[in-house]
Amino acid sequence: MIAFVRGTVAALGLTSAVIEVGGVGLEVQCTPNTLADLRRGSEATLPTSMVVREDSLTLFGFADDDEKQMFELVQTASGVGPKLAQAMLAVHSPEAIRRAVAGDDVKTLTSVPGIGQKGAQRIILELRDRIGSPGSTVEPAAGPAAVAGWQAQVHGGLVGLGWSGKEADKAVAAVAPEADAMEAPDVARLLRLALQTLSKA
């Protein structure tokens, strides 16, 4: 298994980054928060988790070990696969997930697309004794990633994470004033704000 990758950021997309390691470009699936801290051409080290399927090998990358451990832990709950685990980390920090599970906070968990009432209750029941107690963490700051056509990219990112097109439309409209105030649209930050808007709805 690949525990981490270290190399030059060769390319950045809305849901993944390509890290050049020893002349090989590794595509790593990441949350918006993780991508926001990466810069094309810069060196990066990402803790990773490899998901092996019959027809694919997918590498997921994280901002830190806490995110990686939470990604792997939530998948031990029934019905939670890598895509849903990544969606959970796109909407909530590891600390917020710990607080939700420890506090029986079904509402927080159901703000993630793909998690219903019963699913949230099952996650809480199965993870309560293993997820650890809440502590103090600092939310990662979003960085600049100016890209044209931010509306389509944010919309596509939200749909890819499981929201409907209608919900994505509303979220894009909600963050439009923020985009207008920027010299150049910071797509990673706008996607994060859109996620926050949807999680509060």
UniProtKB/TrEMBL annotation:
<dbReference type="GO" id="GO:0009379">
    <property type="term" value="C:Holliday junction helicase complex"/>
</dbReference>
<dbReference type="InterPro" id="IPR003583">
    <property type="entry name" value="Hlx-hairpin-Hlx_DNA-bd_motif"/>
</dbReference>
<dbReference type="GO" id="GO:0048476">
    <property type="term" value="C:Holliday junction resolvase complex"/>
</dbReference>
<feature type="domain" description="Helix-hairpin-helix DNA-binding motif class 1">
    <location>
        <begin position="107"/>
        <end position="126"/>
    </location>
</feature>
<keyword id="KW-0227">DNA damage</keyword>
<dbReference type="Pfam" id="PF07499">
    <property type="entry name" value="RuvA_C"/>
</dbReference>
<dbReference type="GO" id="GO:0000400">
    <property type="term" value="F:four-way junction DNA binding"/>
</dbReference>
<feature type="region of interest" description="Domain III">
    <location>
        <begin position="148"/>
        <end position="201"/>
    </location>
</feature>
<dbReference type="InterPro" id="IPR011114">
    <property type="entry name" value="RuvA_C"/>
</dbReference>
<comment type="subunit">
    <text>Homotetramer. Forms an RuvA(8)-RuvB(12)-Holliday junction (HJ) complex. HJ DNA is sandwiched between 2 RuvA tetramers; dsDNA enters through RuvA and exits via RuvB. An RuvB hexamer assembles on each DNA strand where it exits the tetramer. Each RuvB hexamer is contacted by two RuvA subunits (via domain III) on 2 adjacent RuvB subunits; this complex drives branch migration. In the full resolvosome a probable DNA-RuvA(4)-RuvB(12)-RuvC(2) complex forms which resolves the HJ.</text>
</comment>
<comment type="similarity">
    <text>Belongs to the RuvA family.</text>
</comment>
<dbReference type="InterPro" id="IPR010994">
    <property type="entry name" value="RuvA_2-like"/>
</dbReference>
<dbReference type="GO" id="GO:0005737">
    <property type="term" value="C:cytoplasm"/>
</dbReference>
<dbReference type="Pfam" id="PF14520">
    <property type="entry name" value="HHH_5"/>
</dbReference>
<dbReference type="InterPro" id="IPR000085">
    <property type="entry name" value="RuvA"/>
</dbReference>
<keyword id="KW-0233">DNA recombination</keyword>
<dbReference type="InterPro" id="IPR013849">
    <property type="entry name" value="DNA_helicase_Holl-junc_RuvA_I"/>
</dbReference>
<protein>
    <recommendedName>
        <fullName>Holliday junction branch migration complex subunit RuvA</fullName>
    </recommendedName>
</protein>
<dbReference type="GO" id="GO:0006310">
    <property type="term" value="P:DNA recombination"/>
</dbReference>
<comment type="function">
    <text>The RuvA-RuvB-RuvC complex processes Holliday junction (HJ) DNA during genetic recombination and DNA repair, while the RuvA-RuvB complex plays an important role in the rescue of blocked DNA replication forks via replication fork reversal (RFR). RuvA specifically binds to HJ cruciform DNA, conferring on it an open structure. The RuvB hexamer acts as an ATP-dependent pump, pulling dsDNA into and through the RuvAB complex. HJ branch migration allows RuvC to scan DNA until it finds its consensus sequence, where it cleaves and resolves the cruciform DNA.</text>
</comment>
<dbReference type="InterPro" id="IPR012340">
    <property type="entry name" value="NA-bd_OB-fold"/>
</dbReference>
<feature type="domain" description="Helix-hairpin-helix DNA-binding motif class 1">
    <location>
        <begin position="72"/>
        <end position="91"/>
    </location>
</feature>
<keyword id="KW-0963">Cytoplasm</keyword>
<dbReference type="GO" id="GO:0006281">
    <property type="term" value="P:DNA repair"/>
</dbReference>
<keyword id="KW-0238">DNA-binding</keyword>
<dbReference type="InterPro" id="IPR036267">
    <property type="entry name" value="RuvA_C_sf"/>
</dbReference>
<dbReference type="GO" id="GO:0005524">
    <property type="term" value="F:ATP binding"/>
</dbReference>
<dbReference type="Pfam" id="PF01330">
    <property type="entry name" value="RuvA_N"/>
</dbReference>
<dbReference type="GO" id="GO:0009378">
    <property type="term" value="F:four-way junction helicase activity"/>
</dbReference>
<keyword id="KW-0234">DNA repair</keyword>
